[in-house]
Write the C-alpha coordinates for this entry.
Amino acid sequence: MKQTRDEAVALFKEFNTSESLYTHALSVEAVMRYAARQRGYDPEFWGMVGLLHDIDYEQYPEEHCVKAEEILKERDWPEELIHGVVSHGWGICSTVEPEHEMEKVLYACDELTGLITATVYVRPSKSIMDLGVKSVKKKWKAKGFSAGVDRSIIEKGAALLGMETGELIEMTIEGMKTAAQETGLAGE
Ligand SMILES: [Fe+2]
Ligand SMILES: [Fe+2]
Protein backbone atom coordinates (compact mmCIF):
# COMPACT_ATOMS: atom_id res chain seq x y z
CA MET A 1 0.00 0.00 0.00
CA LYS A 2 1.43 3.35 -0.98
CA GLN A 3 -0.38 5.40 1.67
CA THR A 4 1.18 5.93 5.07
CA ARG A 5 -0.24 6.15 8.56
CA ASP A 6 0.45 9.90 8.56
CA GLU A 7 -1.74 10.26 5.50
CA ALA A 8 -4.48 8.25 7.17
CA VAL A 9 -4.34 10.53 10.22
CA ALA A 10 -4.38 13.64 8.02
CA LEU A 11 -7.38 12.34 6.08
CA PHE A 12 -9.22 11.50 9.28
CA LYS A 13 -8.62 15.00 10.62
CA GLU A 14 -9.69 16.60 7.37
CA PHE A 15 -13.14 15.11 7.89
CA ASN A 16 -13.40 15.03 11.68
CA THR A 17 -12.94 17.67 14.37
CA SER A 18 -14.36 15.72 17.31
CA GLU A 19 -11.75 14.72 19.86
CA SER A 20 -13.79 11.71 21.00
CA LEU A 21 -14.12 10.38 17.45
CA TYR A 22 -10.38 10.67 17.06
CA THR A 23 -9.70 8.81 20.30
CA HIS A 24 -12.15 6.16 19.17
CA ALA A 25 -10.25 5.84 15.88
CA LEU A 26 -6.97 5.52 17.79
CA SER A 27 -8.39 2.86 20.10
CA VAL A 28 -9.72 0.78 17.22
CA GLU A 29 -6.43 1.25 15.38
CA ALA A 30 -4.50 -0.03 18.40
CA VAL A 31 -6.68 -3.14 18.69
CA MET A 32 -6.36 -3.82 14.97
CA ARG A 33 -2.58 -3.56 15.11
CA TYR A 34 -2.46 -5.79 18.17
CA ALA A 35 -4.70 -8.42 16.58
CA ALA A 36 -2.73 -8.35 13.33
CA ARG A 37 0.51 -9.01 15.22
CA GLN A 38 -1.13 -11.86 17.14
CA ARG A 39 -2.43 -13.43 13.96
CA GLY A 40 0.58 -12.90 11.74
CA TYR A 41 -0.81 -10.16 9.50
CA ASP A 42 0.42 -6.67 8.59
CA PRO A 43 -0.21 -4.35 11.55
CA GLU A 44 0.30 -1.22 9.40
CA PHE A 45 -2.52 -2.17 7.07
CA TRP A 46 -4.90 -3.44 9.75
CA GLY A 47 -4.20 -0.31 11.79
CA MET A 48 -5.09 2.02 8.95
CA VAL A 49 -8.39 0.27 8.39
CA GLY A 50 -9.14 0.83 12.06
CA LEU A 51 -8.05 4.43 11.93
CA LEU A 52 -10.25 5.25 8.95
CA HIS A 53 -13.32 3.12 9.63
CA ASP A 54 -15.48 6.03 10.84
CA ILE A 55 -14.01 8.65 8.48
CA ASP A 56 -17.46 9.84 7.33
CA TYR A 57 -19.25 9.67 10.66
CA GLU A 58 -19.03 13.29 11.78
CA GLN A 59 -20.14 14.86 8.50
CA TYR A 60 -22.45 12.19 7.16
CA PRO A 61 -23.93 10.24 10.08
CA GLU A 62 -26.99 9.40 7.97
CA GLU A 63 -24.85 8.05 5.15
CA HIS A 64 -22.27 6.31 7.29
CA CYS A 65 -20.22 3.75 5.30
CA VAL A 66 -21.71 4.97 2.01
CA LYS A 67 -19.82 8.27 2.09
CA ALA A 68 -16.73 6.55 3.46
CA GLU A 69 -16.58 4.41 0.35
CA GLU A 70 -16.90 7.50 -1.86
CA ILE A 71 -14.25 9.50 0.00
CA LEU A 72 -11.72 6.67 0.04
CA LYS A 73 -12.32 5.70 -3.60
CA GLU A 74 -11.90 9.27 -4.78
CA ARG A 75 -8.55 9.43 -3.04
CA ASP A 76 -7.37 6.15 -4.36
CA TRP A 77 -7.18 4.13 -1.17
CA PRO A 78 -6.87 0.38 -1.83
CA GLU A 79 -9.93 -1.71 -2.51
CA GLU A 80 -9.20 -4.09 0.39
CA LEU A 81 -9.07 -1.21 2.85
CA ILE A 82 -12.36 0.18 1.55
CA HIS A 83 -14.02 -3.24 1.78
CA GLY A 84 -12.81 -3.50 5.37
CA VAL A 85 -14.11 -0.04 6.29
CA VAL A 86 -17.52 -0.60 4.74
CA SER A 87 -17.97 -4.07 6.23
CA HIS A 88 -17.79 -2.74 9.80
CA GLY A 89 -21.32 -1.45 9.26
CA TRP A 90 -22.69 -4.80 8.17
CA GLY A 91 -26.37 -5.02 8.97
CA ILE A 92 -26.32 -1.44 10.31
CA CYS A 93 -25.38 0.87 7.46
CA SER A 94 -24.06 -1.54 4.86
CA THR A 95 -24.81 -4.93 3.38
CA VAL A 96 -21.14 -5.82 2.94
CA GLU A 97 -20.35 -8.76 5.17
CA PRO A 98 -17.03 -9.03 7.00
CA GLU A 99 -15.14 -11.76 5.13
CA HIS A 100 -11.46 -11.39 5.88
CA GLU A 101 -10.20 -12.05 9.41
CA MET A 102 -9.20 -8.38 9.55
CA GLU A 103 -12.80 -7.38 8.83
CA LYS A 104 -14.18 -9.70 11.48
CA VAL A 105 -11.84 -8.27 14.10
CA LEU A 106 -12.89 -4.73 13.18
CA TYR A 107 -16.57 -5.64 13.33
CA ALA A 108 -16.13 -7.35 16.70
CA CYS A 109 -14.02 -4.71 18.45
CA ASP A 110 -15.61 -1.46 17.23
CA GLU A 111 -18.51 -1.26 19.71
CA LEU A 112 -16.52 -3.05 22.38
CA THR A 113 -13.89 -0.30 22.52
CA GLY A 114 -16.77 2.03 23.46
CA LEU A 115 -17.91 -0.20 26.31
CA ILE A 116 -14.35 -0.59 27.57
CA THR A 117 -13.71 3.17 27.43
CA ALA A 118 -16.89 3.84 29.40
CA THR A 119 -15.85 1.19 31.93
CA VAL A 120 -12.46 2.84 32.39
CA TYR A 121 -14.05 6.27 32.93
CA VAL A 122 -16.01 5.06 35.96
CA ARG A 123 -13.03 3.32 37.58
CA PRO A 124 -11.30 5.07 40.48
CA SER A 125 -7.94 4.65 38.72
CA LYS A 126 -9.34 5.98 35.40
CA SER A 127 -6.84 3.59 33.87
CA ILE A 128 -7.11 0.69 31.48
CA MET A 129 -3.77 -0.67 32.67
CA ASP A 130 -5.31 -2.54 35.61
CA LEU A 131 -8.64 -3.35 33.97
CA GLY A 132 -9.71 -6.99 33.97
CA VAL A 133 -12.15 -8.87 31.76
CA LYS A 134 -14.48 -9.40 34.73
CA SER A 135 -15.09 -5.68 35.23
CA VAL A 136 -16.04 -5.26 31.60
CA LYS A 137 -18.36 -8.28 31.76
CA LYS A 138 -20.11 -6.74 34.76
CA LYS A 139 -20.72 -3.53 32.84
CA TRP A 140 -21.78 -5.57 29.81
CA LYS A 141 -24.59 -7.08 31.90
CA ALA A 142 -25.60 -3.80 33.50
CA LYS A 143 -28.60 -2.60 31.53
CA GLY A 144 -28.50 1.16 31.20
CA PHE A 145 -24.71 1.33 31.39
CA SER A 146 -23.54 2.65 28.03
CA ALA A 147 -26.93 1.79 26.62
CA GLY A 148 -25.80 2.98 23.19
CA VAL A 149 -23.38 0.07 22.92
CA ASP A 150 -25.15 -2.72 21.11
CA ARG A 151 -24.02 -5.89 22.87
CA SER A 152 -25.60 -8.12 20.22
CA ILE A 153 -23.21 -6.77 17.57
CA ILE A 154 -20.22 -7.61 19.74
CA GLU A 155 -21.60 -11.13 20.25
CA LYS A 156 -22.11 -11.49 16.52
CA GLY A 157 -18.52 -10.37 15.97
CA ALA A 158 -17.16 -12.85 18.50
CA ALA A 159 -19.11 -15.61 16.77
CA LEU A 160 -17.68 -14.61 13.38
CA LEU A 161 -14.21 -15.00 14.87
CA GLY A 162 -15.05 -18.19 16.73
CA MET A 163 -14.06 -16.51 20.00
CA GLU A 164 -15.66 -16.51 23.43
CA THR A 165 -16.74 -13.01 24.44
CA GLY A 166 -14.23 -13.16 27.31
CA GLU A 167 -11.38 -13.80 24.88
CA LEU A 168 -12.55 -10.99 22.66
CA ILE A 169 -12.73 -8.60 25.61
CA GLU A 170 -9.22 -9.61 26.67
CA MET A 171 -7.78 -9.06 23.20
CA THR A 172 -9.51 -5.67 22.95
CA ILE A 173 -8.26 -4.53 26.37
CA GLU A 174 -4.71 -5.61 25.56
CA GLY A 175 -4.82 -3.81 22.22
CA MET A 176 -6.26 -0.63 23.74
CA LYS A 177 -3.54 -0.64 26.40
CA THR A 178 -0.93 -0.08 23.70
CA ALA A 179 -2.51 3.33 22.95
CA ALA A 180 -3.55 4.20 26.51
CA GLN A 181 -1.45 7.38 26.62
CA GLU A 182 -2.78 8.78 23.35
CA THR A 183 -6.36 7.92 24.18
CA GLY A 184 -6.31 9.26 27.73
CA LEU A 185 -6.88 5.85 29.31
CA ALA A 186 -3.62 5.57 31.20
CA GLY A 187 -4.99 7.02 34.45
CA GLU A 188 -4.28 10.22 36.25
FE1 LIG B 1 -19.01 3.10 12.42
FE1 LIG C 1 -16.43 2.97 15.13
Notes: The first helix runs from residue 5 to 15. The chain has one domain: 5-181.
